[in-house]
Sequence to fold (453 residues):
Amino acid sequence: MELPSYFVKYLREIQPSRASRERAIQLHTTLRNRLSQANDAVFSTWYSGSFLYGSYIRNTSIHPIKDVDVCLLLDMRIEDCTPEHVIRRLRTVLENLGYADKTAYQHRSIRIDMSGTTLDAVPVVPIDGEDSVLHIPDRVAKEWIHTHPKAHMEAATRINKACGGRYIPLVKIVKAWYRYQAKQKRGIERPKPKGFTLEVLVAHHQDPDAPTYAEAFVNFLENLLNAYGAQLTQGIFPVVPDPGLTGENLKLSFEPAEAKLFADIVAESLALARKALAAETVGESAELWRQVFGTRFPDAPSATKSMRTVDMSEESEDAFDAEFETEVSEIELPAVLPLTGRLKLKAQLATQQSNQSITQNYPSDSRAIAKGMWIKFSILETTVQPPFYIRWIVENHGKEAQEAKQMGHDSLTTSDVRYQWEHTQYRGTHYMICEIIKSDVVVARAQHKVAIR
Fold:
């Protein structure tokens, strides 16, 4: 079973807590403030500012936030300094700023250990501005190499939008899965692949049109094994293209045993996940998913364990509250509009475009439905007083909609006609957006997510 609401609860469980986020903000803000006031004869002439990088700013981190990457912009000529010299200088500066006994060398940065959360201070030298490709010092390779953090952020935003907002939550699910399987279950302290490599693997091998998180996870593992299974079982970790640097690959270092272990974990988890999808009862499915993800994945209540189906009204992926939805999809959300009204939608499934053929309610992003069905969207509640206009906007995602050149449409009705019929046609995750317009201003907005298999 797909158990959509269980996956939403799991996402809530692995989402960084408010306290974890606030601590991360406090740590990186303090570091950046101290660096701006550094009194070092050499470093002060180099340092020109900073920006955040990594999973924290791409919104792909999970709880607890383990590290925060801070790129330090240096205005200097790389020909004048070796990578070793720059990183050693940076460590001296950080120790003089109050981080003594907390720093450690890494290949391309200085790690600052702050009681459970690490700050990675990463020196970079812009080639043509901070939004372009940057030089980063590699102590081990003894050379300046290329990196493009801003392109990584843009890629995450673009990919997440293209698949209807599924990518970033799926990355979180994959990271939490691997942390459980490698670190908690097998006791590996620093498992490989690391978080960013997993993130890029998801980008390359996800099924962007998968209508539920359960299917998205299973399809990702299947695609991964189909692409790399033979290499991994031979102890060879595959080449992974860098999403920020055209024609270049991630610089990865794997021992044969590490690659083989990754293959074993993927294969074992895929077998369990397939059984979970095929399970006939809620209890059996939830227990199998817990073997994949650990005890942070919710167990089925006793009253529902033997059920062979789940009431669709209870099995909704629309369980995100406003704060959580923003956290999970923050990287691709548009700017908040100054809305003054409240609006709630309801959707009902039907076999034909008529009220007499309506069969059941369809909560936003509950289980995936078949093609060829009708959905009646209606305004359930609004605080906006008539008269007003209603704009219904269909936003499609996925390959099938792209191939049909049907990425969306909209229509306008009056406050007297508060419903809209639509027909399911394309696999993927789609949205019905409803806007209430009064005096040419959008005063209320709501959206309903539709998953089609």
